[in-house]
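Submission sheet (multi-component)
Chains listed below:
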Amino acid sequence: MIRTREAAPAASTAQPHRRRRHRRIGTYTFIVLMAILWIFPLVWTIYASLRTNQDTTLHGYFSLPTELTLDNYVDAWNGAEIPRAYLNTLVITIPSVIVALLVASMVAFALTRFRWRFNIPLLMIFVAGNLLPQQVFIVPLYRIFLWSGFAVPAPLSDSGLLYNQLFGIILINVVFQMGFCIFVLSNYMKTLPKELVEAAQVDGAGVFRIWAGVIMPLCRPALAAMATLEFTFIYNDFFWALFLMKDGDRRPITSFLQNLNGMYYSDYSLLAAGAFLAVIPTLIVFFLLQRFFVSGLTLGSVKG
Amino acid sequence: MADREMNDAAPAQLALASTAGAAVDPDVPSRRRFSLPLRRAPRRRRFSLLTRRDKLVLALMVGIPLVFDLVFIWLPCIATIGLSFTDWTGIGPLTGDNFVGLEQYEKVWAYPFFEPALIHNAVWLAWLACIATPLGILLAVILDGNLRGSRVYQSIFYLPVVLSLAVIGLIWQLLYAPDVGNGFINSFLDALGQLPISLPLPDMSHTDWLGDGNINLFACLVAASWRHVGYICILYLAGLKSFDPQLREAAAIDGATSRQTFFHVVFPVMRPINLVIVVITAIEALRAFDIVYIVNRGRNGLELLSALITNTALSESTRVGFGSAIAVVLLLISIVPIVTFLVWQTREDLE
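Outcome: structure written.
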């Protein structure tokens, strides 16, 4: 590909040739500088988290290290109940992603593979719900979560309420993220040929079997991408657990950062270690599943 | 490249899985293959293939999620509007006596933090739209060229997109820490000042980046852009990769410079993705919350509509009616990009 690009100016004079080379150097300089700028905040966080207290009180953070240590990670891990926050995150994120995708794929299937009058309005209701800023409806939602009328049974809630429960957070994550998943999956399903469903129907398969046996397997690439993306969205959610969860020890790691910020606001090394701990799972997902993450975003092409 | 493989995987599987489908171009709507009088026939037949049980299953598949969507998103949305006409404090029952008409809106209008919040949201939007989004597009265009190590740069620019905005707020707090020696930026500025050559720069090494109400909004915007630029870059690069290279070659043969090619050929053809990006940018600006909340809960120069709502009407705060009135303002503004997006999206559907 580089060949073809450079073949064209060969016909012209040497002057633009040189200008082109200059511009190429300029482009590389720019992109390298930007890349350094972009990676720097994370590098600085990691660096700050590895410094020792005596080192930084003596020389400040802007200095070469006399020694590097993982002690801050040990302290953050032990002192700030981070393991519990991780566990909360796990309990919230995994079921939320699975349920959101299952439900969304059913809705998308029903709305795209069969024509009925309310297809488009229904799709709009689901998608618009996900595009709203969460703060628009948090005030009544907070009251709904405090409403005792649902009488949520025991294993899901220890108070009968949705408020301050892991189940409540799972529920709102599923409901809120569903809209986005429906949008992406329905766009994806529209590209599947209609004849697939018809053929299965002629063979006598019920719609549930068509969904499970024909559509879901074909949507595997989209589902993999969405699972990766939704994992990071739900993992990164800060808002729901902050306001719909009272007890700090029930909060997932992202919302728990608010507690961490209050506890360690003067100890930058501990703060950095805590922040980096909170980032590790998403970084792992990013480096292992980057193409799924990127294609998830691309498939959706919208995520507010 | 990888995401292109992903997208290709679907048609490949299709070809294997379907006998009829393989020969049919999925992009061509099936009804176009029938002559006019037959148009409605296949549609009706499709319905007759559904048994009563099928219809029930389909209704449940859509109905149950719809109920949840209505109860936990749209009902609260409407309730927000209702509550904005009351002086309810959240304590005790809500009765007819709580109805106060438009009083809360008058109070919101007179609230000293309302106008700053509106302005800050507008600045947020302007910054994202005029600085962060174009930068993301520029990076995408550069990365789309034949750059050595493009994958590595992509990973670097995409990296902040997987981070939560809350963690981004924390990370930038470390960089912005006001005291020289702790915060990177001030230490760096201080080090610049101590160079043997004097720079024609004022000494800014004691700036309280997040504490000074005049500049902390921009400090937060830099942090927000760290993520937003990568996000736009991902979307735009995907669009550019699907761009027909022949168009670009044709422009090159006609003697267009690469800049002319971009503005007169590539950019117009990318219209769908441009629209998506405009909508995303607007929605992101209205949703801005996490970073300012981590920094100082949205006070002292960082007032945003979203933060005013939570600060006045949630947790220990009891101005439910007042906060709801602000939420209605945010809702009304949000409707613009949301409706734009939906209308444009369904128009695509009908094509």
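Remark: Residues 78-245+253-350 of chain B form a domain with the MetI-like fold fold (CATH 1.10.3720.10).
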